[in-house]
Automatic annotation (TrEMBL):
UniProt: heme binding residues: 484
Cofactors, names only: heme
Organism field: Elysia crispata
Taxonomic lineage from the root: Eukaryota, Metazoa, Spiralia, Lophotrochozoa, Mollusca
GO molecular function, one term: iron ion binding
Stretch forming the signal peptide: 1-24
Superkingdom of origin: Eukaryota
Protein name as it appears in the record: Cytochrome P450
């Protein structure tokens, strides 16, 4: 069925006449319909422990929303001025959150220029929100200004910015290919090829002192190349040719600007919602550039794909992502553009940063690194490839990745709009409230995680006290039906690259402690100057 005839009208925004296939299996494996008043398990993988009452009967007897503890600030403006006067507080938002929790408790309100945020710090409260979600978990956009860009450019908002039935249909189509383990594994051969080429390139980048100048950027280029290969089945040479280097630089810079500007706007007065401020204009310009590049790639891929279909030469393992998306009933042409945009660039703020964090943590912990390297050697084939069986058999490296997520996560929080009136911690949290599920603070709390500041992958092994750790404490990809749709790609690429790097190099770190900088998500606050020492040298 994959080779159903597709008639392509050229041009990125053009209408595509498609064969429509409905996949009966496009249903959510974890979806449990439920009402807000009942406490129900959210995810089969999660071994739920304590539960907090979420009965709506409690709601009326709770203290009103206005009584939720909050730091002092001017009405409506809240803490806006504080951030305005000292922007370093935005960059170290992790410290602000820690302080909020220490001073006000596990449920805290924060107002920033008219935006009322309720921070939930306790894993039990977080569980309560997940448990109360129905068929369509509601989220506010993570980058509100990017959503504005899409709206004003006649693009669809994309998965992370959609809610309700629209989100559900799109999500079903996308997750069929991205989240089903067997489907995601079909992308592993392509990911292996990109990783092998990157390893060849890496060797030549190592300076005499063992460091790779501009490592952060090289890793971003690897992420971008792998992402382009995943969605377009095209090699872009982002880390190989002069042209590729220049183009990847521009995309990486534009993406970085988008996050910096979106953060600035989030903490500013919402004037940008009324007219286009210089920051919003700059953000729109950068989005224009990224969008054009993604569209160009999509056009090229579509041309090659159509030719292969017409020639009858489309191999089973080619253009996997495009084939599926073009055949999906619920993916409009506009949706396709937005999804491509997301899959192409999401790695820059997620997988690529997480790989850097893992390298930093392994370089800092030699004993654990050697254990991980031992496992890495057993995972790769003689030609250095990761098979799906090997991926599934990894234990220690996975624990290392998990521990690195705890210490250096992708984000500080997961966002939600409360699905109904909730009684949380004795307070009324009305339907539609902007919620930040902050498990980061607790995952560094020594009262909850022994030796919280130390890197101990062993704590995540089954024969440890692993099952005593609250399952809602560390959820880097979130849980339930809204869980990260790129999770499998990210996990495959991370494990693959770490196995390859650890097999070839021993890593060292000779600098001070690395922190993270907040810009809606988190990135290392410095160049990750890991020293690479060849194991066979
Ligand atoms: C280490 C890497 C990554 C981490 C830790 C991560 C984490 C997350 C988290 C926490 C969410 C929010 C889920 C929720 O609201 O409940 C999310 C959503 C999402 N992620 Fe990722 N992500 C990663 C990589 C990626 C990649 C590589 C892609 C693209 C292929 C991607 C695409 C998405 C999309 C489209 C959503 C929105 C899903 C929806 O709302 O239905 N992510 N991610």
């Amino acid at each position: 069925m994959r080779n159903a005839i597709l008639v392509l009208l050229k041009g990125c925004g053009a209408m595509l006449a498609r064969s429509r296939l409905v996949y009966a299996s496009q249903i959510f494996a974890n979806h449990v319909p439920h009402h807000c008043s009942k406490s129900t398990a959210v995810n089969n993988e999660v071994n739920t422990q304590t539960s907090v009452s979420s009965s709506s009967d409690d709601y009326d007897s709770c203290l009103p929303f206005s009584k939720i503890p909050e730091p002092r600030g001017l009405p409506w403006f809240g803490r806006w001025l504080e951030y305005k006067l000292d922007y370093s507080k935005v960059h170290r938002r992790d410290l602000i959150l820690k302080k909020l929790q220490a001073e006000y408790g596990d449920i805290v309100k924060e107002t920033i220029a008219g935006r009322h945020i309720v921070h939930l710090f306790h894993p039990d409260y977080i569980k309560q929100v997940y448990d109360s979600e129905g068929k369509y978990p509601m989220v506010p956009p993570i980058l509100e200004s990017v959503e504005m860009y899409r709206r004003s450019n006649d693009l669809t908002p994309g998965l992370g910015n959609s809610n309700g039935e629209v989100w559900y249909k799109l999500r079903a189509a996308v997750q069929y290919i991205l989240l089903r383990p067997k489907k995601a594994m079909d992308f592993l051969p392509g990911q292996n090829k990109v990783a092998a080429d990157f390893m060849n390139r890496l060797d030549g980048l190592i300076a005499e002192n063992g460091e790779v100048p501009d490592l952060n950027r090289w890793i971003a280029r690897w992420g971008l190349e792998s992402a382009a290969n995943n969605c377009f089945d095209i090699r872009m040479n982002y880390f190989e040719t002069k042209e590729g280097l220049e183009l990847s630089n521009r995309i990486i810079n534009a993406n970085s600007d988008v996050f910096d500007l979106a953060t600035k706007l989030y903490f500013s007065l919402p004037i940008y919602r009324i007219f286009q401020t210089p920051s919003l204009k700059k953000l729109f310009d950068q989005e224009d550039f990224i969008n054009e590049e993604a569209c160009k790639n999509l056009d090229t891929a579509l041309e090659r794909y159509t030719k292969a279909v017409e020639d009858g030469t489309l191999a089973e393992d080619r253009f996997l992502f495009l084939t599926h998306m073009l055949q999906s009933e619920h993916v409009s042409d506009k949706d396709l553009r937005t999804i491509i945009l997301s899959i192409l660039t999401d790695t820059l703020s997620t997988t690529s940063q997480i790989l850097l964090n893992n390298l930093y943590n392994l370089a800092n912990n030699q004993k654990e690194q050697e254990k991980a390297a031992d496992e890495a050697r057993s995972l790769l084939t003689s030609s250095g490839e990761l098979t799906s069986a090997a991926f599934n058999s990894s234990i220690y490296l996975r624990a290392c990745i998990k521990e690195s997520f705890r210490l250096h996560p992708v984000g500080l929080d997961i966002l939600r709009l409360s699905p109904c009136n909730l009684a949380i911690g004795g307070y009324q949290v009305p339907e539609g409230t902007y919620l930040c599920l902050n498990n980061y603070v607790h995952s560094l709390d020594p009262a909850i995680i022994p030796k919280a500041e130390s890197y101990i992958p062993e704590r995540w092994l089954r024969d440890s006290d692993w099952d005593k750790i609250n399952p809602y404490l560390l959820t880097p990809f979130s849980l339930g039906t809204r869980m990260c749709v790129g999770r499998r790609f990210a996990e495959q690429e991370l494990l693959l690259m770490l196995a390859k790097i650890l097999t070839s190099y021993r890593l060292e770190w000779h600098y001070g402690k690395m922190h993270q900088r907040f810009r809606m998500l988190l990135i290392p606050d410095q160049e990750v100057k890991v020293k690479f020492i060849r194991r066979d040298g």
